[in-house]
Amino acid sequence: MMEQVFTEGEQELYDRHFSLRGFGEEAQRKLKKGKVLVVGAGGLGSPLLLYLAAAGVGQIGIIDFDKVDASNLHRQVIFDEKQVGMPKVQAAKKRLQGINPFIEIETYEERLTTGNAMEIIRQYEVVADGSDNFPTRYLVNDACVLAGKPNVYGSIFQFEGQVSVFNYKDQDGKWGPNYRDLYPSPPPAGLVPNCAETGVLGVLPGIIGSMQALEVIKVLTGIGTVMGGKMWLFDALAFESRLFKIKRKPDNPLNGNHPSITGLIDYEAFCGLKQEYGVKSISVEGLQDLKNAKEDFLLVDVREIHEFRRKNMGGKLMPLSELDEFQAQIPKHKKVIIHCETGVRSEAAINRLEKQYGFTNLYNLKGGIKAFLSKFPAS
Questions:
Q1: Which of 213, 340, 349, 371 is catalytic?
Q2: Whether residue 195 lies in the annotated active site
Q3: CA Rg value for the chain
C-alpha cells in the first residue's frame, strides 16, 4: 500500500507538525486518513471543528439542525455576524474550507436521532460529542458503544467544564468505561438548567472544545496518553483542575455483565422530556388563531429576564425561578397560555401551578417561542 503523499500546499500548511519531534509526517498521515464526526456545531463544536480542520483531519462530519443566532457569537467563534440565520453546518463548512482546502467535510443538517445515529456514526473512526443536552449525550454514548467507536466527550456549565474519552480501546484491546459508567441515569427533567437559563462564560467552551480536539488528535495518531478511563474537571474562576479515574461498572445496562440495552432507545422519554406531566397544550397555529380572533387570553413567559429582553411575544414575564411570587397574578377564569424557549420549562411551570395552586385553565405552547417565531416571524 502506497503511503499518502502530501501536496506542496499541504506541506506548507502542516510544516510545524512535520518538524515536531514525536509527531512528524507519520502522525500527519494518520490525521489525513482520519474520519471524525462532530456532534453539534455550537460552543464546543466551534473550537473542535476549527482545530481538527487546521490540524489536517482528512474527513470531518458535522451534524447540527440549528441555525446561527446572534446570541451564539460570544462563544461560537466559528461564526460571524454575516452568517446569522444560516444553517450552522453550512456556515461552519464554509469557514473550515477557508482554513484547510485539502480536507473533506460532510454535513448533516438534521438532528441526531435513534433512526439515523448508527448509520452516520459507523462511517467515522472517532465521534466528538459537542452536544448540550442529556438525550443526545446518552444517544451518542450508546451508539458509540454499539458501533465500537471512541467517544470524545465534553460538557460545560456556567464557569465549569469536563472532558473525557469514553469507550476507548487501549493497546491491550480492553474497552474503557463509557458515559453510563459515570452517569447511569439522567437527572430529573428540568433540574439542570441550560445555557439560555443560566448563561455560560464565552471563553469556557473554547477551552473545553480545544481539549476535546487534542484528545481526538491523540486517538487518531496514537501519540501521548489518551484520557480513556479518566475525567478532567476545570473550574475557570478558580483556575483549578483535577483528574479522577472512572471504572467500568458490572451493572452497566449497555455493556455490563448482564446488558439490558441491546439497541438504541427513545432518549427523550428516557430523560423525562416527553410530556412528563401530561399538561394541556396548544400548537403555535392554535395560538395564532386565538390572536387573529382577538380572543381574551393571557400569555405568560416563564423565561429569565435577559431572554425576554432579547426577544419576546409581548407576554407577561413571570420567570420560572420566581413563579411562586407571581402565581397570584394569574387569573383562573380565562385561558392562560404559558411558554418558554422550547416548551420544557413552561410544562414544568404548569405542573407546579396545577398541583400547588389548583389551576385548571393553563395551556403549554408546544415548541415555545422558538417554534412560534419560526412559523410566524412577523408576530
A1: 340
A2: yes
A3: 23
